[in-house]
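User: For my dataset I need records formatted as: sequence, then structure tokens, nothing else. Please produce one.
Assistant:
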Amino acid sequence: MKEVKVHISIFDLAGGKSILTGSLPGRKVLADLIAAVQPEASGEIVFLDFAGIEVATSSFLRECVVGFRDFARGQANLYPVLVNAGALVVEELDFFARQRGDVFWSCTRDHDGALADIKLVGELEPALRTTFERIYRLGEATAPQLAALGEDQGIKPTAWNNRLASLAAKGLVVERRVGKTKNFVPLLEVG
């Protein structure tokens, strides 16, 4: 797991509102999230703290959470993780993510920074799910290592690399360059 330095309260960014609806408010919180992230935070986990939020609609989550994840993974090399989201928020995110074949990290975090109830919310397509499960089981992997396992006959390192890159783009795994090889490790350990 990466060292944590960034923790942002969605409740605070939303002006203390506990019910978050609509794409325009989602974009406003997204803009505030991007402004709150320092450029030197590259490579860090960003905890998006949903404590105090009772409900967040799919349109809000699409603009705020998905928008921030796309920014974080595409431009800033950050790893967003939802923390302290209530059951209704997790249910809405899970429904929305499953419709897109997407997945997000979620957990709880106490005042001392300890993580619990670590899980993936949503569902990956079968090929990506299998790839993630193998990386998780191995602890870390490269595309050639996955191809060499021979568990899926005919899948070449290039195809494994594409799957690994997709998982990295979703923020599920961390990509580390070791010489000419890219090594992938899970961002968090599923509880």
